[in-house]
Amino acid sequence: MQFPNEKAFTLLEVLFAFSIFTTIIFFMLPVFQIVLDHKDSNKRLQEMEWDVFCSQVKKEIRIVSKAQVVSGRLVLTLNSDTIYYEKYGSNIRRQVNSSGHETLLQNVASVTFTRVNNSVKISVIDIWGREYSVRVYSYIEWVPVI
To answer: CA Rg, the chain, in Å?
Structure first.
């Protein structure tokens, strides 16, 4: 026997389909949040790396006997060692006596080292276009730049 409304959905079928739809949406929202927050976490991580970089550079520059900027590289002299800071690819690296490869900061688009009197100014632009800058003063009186 056939009923006239057999081709229509029942209320139970509609509620079942709606519950499946809301369950899918419920689990998809956190996935979208994770994907969108990943970009922000990279930016926050870059800020933390910048803070660590500044601490390391400040500690070293304050005790060196000489600082120069040569061909876009920061050259520091400490006792008989020569320490180089330079951009290498998208990183800032540190070398001692032209050997080694210590990565100090990543995701760098450009870096500028400037010697100003008894201080060094380091300006960095990261790959997201944000600018960072630090000026480090030495405890030791350097020879004036000629």
So the answer is: 29
pLDDT tens, N- to C-terminus, the chain (146 residues): 555 556 666 888 888 899 999 999 888 888 878 777 766 777 788 889 999 999 999 999 888 888 889 998 999 998 889 999 999 999 999 999 988 889 999 999 999 999 988 889 999 999 889 999 999 988 777 666 55
Distance CA 83, CA 72 (A): 14
pTM over 0.90: no
Query: What is the rounded CA–CA span in Å between residue 11 and residue 23?
Result: 18
Instruction: Give the list of residues 6+ apart from residue 94 with CB closer than 8 angstroms, or none.
Output: 83, 84, 85, 100, 102, 104
Provide the token pair at 67.
Answer: 């600082």
Least Cα distance to 93 among 56, 43, 136, 41 occurs for 56
Domain limits, the chain: 11-137
